[in-house]
Amino acid sequence: MGKLSVGLVGAYFPNFAAEQYRVYPRAVAALRRLATEWNFDLVAVEAGVQTVEQAETARRRLEDAGVDFVLIQASSFATGDVFLPLAQMDVPLGLWAVPEPSLEGEIPLNSFCGLNIVTSITRVNLRERRFPFKWFYGDVDDDWFRRRLGLTVQALTALKQLRQARIALVGDVAPGFFNLTYEPEGIETRLGVQVEQVALDEVFKRVKGYEAPRVSALAAEIAERATEVAVSEKWMERTGRIVLALRDVADDGGYNALALRCWPEFQSELGGIGPCAAVAWLNETGLPTSCEGDVLGAASMLTLQLLSGGPTTLMDLVAVLEDQGLIQLWHCGPAPASLADQAGQRLTHHPTLDRASPPGTPPSGVSSDLVLAPGPATVMRFTPAADRAFLMSVDVVEGPTRGYDGSRGWLANLHINEEPSDVPDLIETISYHGLPHHYPVALGDWGDVFRELAAWAGIEVLKKAPYRDYLVSPS
Q: Residues 87-123: pLDDT tens digits?
């Protein structure tokens, strides 16, 4: 997926000292260094602009280059007619002022006033703009400037990559899971992600076609990543075949994530297997794969992977301890090994498939059994049209037990979109908003950068619905 392309232009007024202090040339040089450090492309208009004609030429230069984001530096005070052509560009904008070189005598730059002018023009006179803007202040090496621009580069890079992404629904939504509905047009409008459907038969036809040595090598690689393998070689090789088939489906179709209907056909067609460990391996190796045909779960996992740079998983909310402020997220075994605590990943028989089987029935495989590593984590999922998103920052902690068999973790210190929340608040919020029962998880706190992404994409991040003893009726 392509790198972010950042355009840069500086505006100034000849009566001020922008040229004397080399404000814009220094900015170009510093941002070129930052572009190398942060891995984005910089397209800089080489000279600052002073006139409307120069501003229009700079605009055409950046538009012809197809930049994804434009930084307009108020290298000094400049008038609105110079800023206006630049602010009219149909891309996300950054509007930037720099500190004054001195704080007495004649004002050298009056840069902040220039920022004030262009932010006002953009907000008041260009209300029809479809993209918002973000202000910046400081020199490129200032921590404040770097923090703000770093979030923007990270968020817009992920958004650009999402807009190049495709998701395959392999099969359909699992039986009875009506709440996993999705709206392809809304997903494409907000995220740019295209959703296509692939028949499960495409997977099943491929599974038996791989040569045994290739399957065995992959099964051994999967097993080597685990701390314990408690299933037979037969189950591991079936898992390897499923991985190969799903990976080939993704590669052939150019898909960046999968939403997999993992039951009941896998069990009936492939000898009772649960594909959970295969899903865990795909999640481990860069192909986010959601359970039970959850398209928005897959889109959410892909987004978290792009923001975090690491693997993600999908879980249900299965236990709450209101008095301890704890919740347990769990699923039957799709979490990748790199999310595990120091005990690591065990590859075990499936924890739920055999519950109704007669006594003595051989157990089914294969599940990724692990407990999430302690530390901060982010829970996020989009609503059906991707126009809203649930976002929760948490800490994975040691709970009163190891939790249910499968992939799981105890969570504390709940914050719903930055608001401290207790267990009743969480239950009220998911009920109020009708959130689906699947919660994508990434280790680390990615709340700020996701909020930035959502703001650029026009996605509402849902607020907490505070708990009350009385009925809270949704508006």
A: 999 999 999 999 999 999 999 999 999 999 999 999 9
Question: Do residues 406 and 339 lie in contact, with contact meaning Cβ atoms separated by under 8 Å?
Answer: no
* pLDDT the model gives residue 1: 63
Using alpha carbons, select from 310, 371, 313, 365 the residue that is nearest to residue 344.
371
Three-state DSSP state, 270: coil
pLDDT at 420: 98
Q: Which amino acid is at 267?
A: Q
- For residue 162, what are its two tokens? 């999402």
What is the distance between the alpha carbons of residues 155 and 157, in angstroms, rounded to a whole number?
Answer: 5
The CATH number given to 5-162 is: 3.40.50.10940
Instruction: State the Cα–Cα distance between residues 301 and 294, nearest whole angstrom.
Output: 10
Domain 166-461 has CATH 3.90.180.10: no
Measured CA angle at 409 (ends 405, 410), to 5 deg:
120
Q: What is the pTM of this model?
A: 0.97
Domain boundaries of the chain, sorted by first residue? 5-162, 166-461
CB 240 within 8 A of CB 270: no
- The one-character DSSP state at 339 is G
Three-state SS for 420-458 is ECCHHHHHHHHHHHCCCCCEEEEECCCHHHHHHHHHHHC
Cβ neighbours, 10 Å, residue 306: 24
Residue 344 has a pLDDT of 98
Phi-psi region of 417 (alpha: psi -120 to 50; beta: other; left: phi over 0): left
Is the distance from CB of 48 to CB of 79 less than 8 angstroms?
no
Same fold, 5-162 and 166-461: no
Residues of the chain with pLDDT under 70: 1
